[in-house]
User: Fold this.
Amino acid sequence: MISSISSTIIRLFRIKKFAIGLLILLVVLFIGIVGPAIYEVSPTRTIGRRYVPPGEKYPLGTDALGRDVLAQFLHGIRGSLYVGAIASAISLSLAIFLGTIAAVFGGLVDKIVMTLSEILLLIPSILLMMLLAAYLPERSLWIVAVVIGITSWAGWCRGFRSRTLSILSSEFINLAILSGASRLNIIIRDIVPIIAPYVLAAFAMLFSYSIMAEVGLTLVGVGMTKDVTLGLMLYVAQIYANISQGIWWTIVPPSITVTLIFLSLYMIATSIDELFSYR
Amino acid sequence: MSKVILEVKNLTKVYRIGLIRQKEIVAVNNINFNVKEGEIISLVGESGSGKTTTARIILRLLRPTSGNVLFNGKDIWRDIRNRKELKWYWRNVNGVFQDPYSSFNPTHTIRFVMLRKFNLFDEEMDYDTKISMIKEALKEVGLIPEEILDKRSFELSGGMRQRVLIAQIFLIRPKLVIADEPTSMIDATLRLSLLDLFLKLRDEFKTSQIFITHDLGLATYTSDRILVMYKGKIVEEGTPEEILNKPSHPYTKKLLESVPKLYSKWFT
Amino acid sequence: MAVKININPFIAYALKRFGIMMLTFSVALFLIFILPRMIPGNPLASTIFRLTQGGITSPEQLKATERMLLETFKLYEPLHIQFVDFISKLIHGDLGTSILFYPLSVADLIALYLPWTLLLMIPAVSLSWFIGNYIGVVAAMNRNKFVDKVVLTIFMILQGVPPYVLGMYLILLLAVYMPIFPTGGGWPPGMVPRLSVEFVLAYLKHYILPFLSIFISSLGGWGLSMRSIAVQELASDYMEYTIRGVGLSQKKVVNYLFKCSALPQIVGLAIVLGWSVAGSVLTEIVFGYPGIGMIFWRAINAQDYPLIQGIFIIIIATLLLANYISELLFAYIDPRARYAYVGVQ
Ligand SMILES: Nc1ncnc2c1ncn2[C@@H]1O[C@H](COP(=O)(O)OP(=O)(O)OP(=O)(O)O)[C@@H](O)[C@H]1O
Ligand SMILES: [Mg+2]
Assistant:
């Protein structure tokens, strides 16, 4: 058991794409977790003149309100990671739960879940999010994450449903029963190991999707209002027209980081998928 | 006269599909037969005739709509309820399926698959005893245990996988084996050697067998008695000689026309 | 026993999908109606209260706005009557009056700004569809070779860069550091849209950057999906036969492959075009481009609920319609799709 897990991990690392993706992700995670603790400057207090370019005093300069951009950046990464984690945890749980019960129970339950997810797929989740968020006056990190989470499970729910269906119709489940395996044993030893990589890939994709969605929502003006995230940094830069003034230091760090997070998770998800798609 | 171990009485299975406009498919329609100790019977029929459905009901994987299956006089749905009785039943009645590809969980090693079968054993055994029994069983079916024990199914060929499935039968030595088209997805050249394994099972352990196939030729090769199934019903029953020489049902005659000469010439 | 009626499967499929579309639209309408009224603290009521209390200076306008808001939302009525009113107004094409752009009606505002969005999105998306797919086919032809790997990497990165981020970089690069293009807007301030050479040229100058950002950032998605479709297509027996047996030139093969694999992608194009109104919101904001996305943003920031509501309805309606058309298109092209849905039971 242990040897098979470690050999899988070794195989994973042999995929260059996975290793690079993981490395980028770990660096971003590290910065987001440790950064704010080391660099103890408040991201929300005005500490100097506005638009001071990066230099010795302020490593990444100051923004339109004279706040320290590096502090904002570090806290922003942390905030965005929080949003990603909460939102993807919510949508992943919904997707797994609904997809599995649709497959297992079939019939009416299946019909309801499938219709619901079809409707949700037809209405773009970004619109639903805007609609939800537009009417919520005060929007914290939690609210934004929940809004993202409950609107983005539909596609993956269908994925889990079809995976579960194909597992349930596989002969090996019958053979496990004929081997006297208990229901619990079948779930743990047969179903979970096959679903797990898919869950991991789904988590990675949903995580990056949620981070992107938060940026989009906030930029439109229906996202974060209270906590610092990468989206909020871009929003502030946008409303103070920093781009056209050439104030690059408030734009480049958050936008590059968002792209890096997306890319690293995309690389991880696709390499997990490639490795575990048994022929 | 050997004793009857399995009785199938008035067995019927109706599938209901669709939610609003329900449609009924009568997959198995009131069939009756029995299996004696050490006997090999074949269930022959075209695709969709209800063979697999029958097999699954006998293996207690699927509940019949009506009718009974009795094993050693016990009704398998009424009299077998708790885990202990279930294990006893599957220790005595087990199966091999058609598709050697979906018969294995791709995340499992052969070692795990084989070890799992010990669930069905009452007696306590230590790991080494189990492994040596497993190796014994794998050798019986012509596999080299050391080479395959730690492999996963996708590293094995279709024929090897089917042998592993049969090795599980050699391991538990049930009273009755239900083999649902065990050779249909295997290369034709390997078929006979797999069939010989089933004959060996009978010769060594007196295992009764229900051999399911759509190939009348294969059925005549292995079995003592042949049941011809057509649209959920058993339309003809007899020894291979009887079936080959004087088939009564038109469907059997049609089946016979498609049997390659190779088999039939042994009986004429 | 049910009487078996033989309906043309295409019509059966079309009807079924129409049902799903209408169901979805109803759900969307219901959400649009219920959300502002259900959320704790009733943001709609408090906004109306706030707006009628202050912010608007002239007393006549205040009165008019107040009357209009009460008229639009009828918050004093019970919920079900509000709903019936909401739906019946909708059927008559009445989306209410904007607060921000008072006294313009929401429908007029949408009619005024939507064309600019379409003018931006349709060419950009279509062109990137064509070029992205073409590159995808070429990559598939050279599978696992150097060209393929380079294309794959670039496309993957492009997929991770949303159009609005790309837009920000384009502005920084081509409007600020190298001031070739204006930094935003649809045309120079003070100019009035009309069909003159002078205006068209000025408009094009403002048009190029937002166009590029949408064009480039959607290349990746098209290219990657086309590549995988074409790879599968190449592996099929008949392609093998066509290429080997007939001995076509490389260029002809690319063209042929493109035609074979483009079918599913056409459906994707229809969907994305339907999406384009929603998808352009962020790009328009970044560029200050005067389309529907821009006024949506302004509506949200001014809490102009009638306008927000109206734009939502329009976006969802176009989207569903585009999706429906693409489904029918697909079923028309590929009969398997409709049989799969109707079911051969
Ligand atoms: N789970 C199910 N739900 C609905 N109908 C089913 C189900 N399983 C089988 N059927 C139907 O029951 C009938 C008998 O199927 P069965 O699998 O028993 O046939 P078979 O003789 O084993 O055929 P084959 O040679 O193809 O394996 C078929 O018409 C089949 O479509
Ligand atoms: Mg079958």
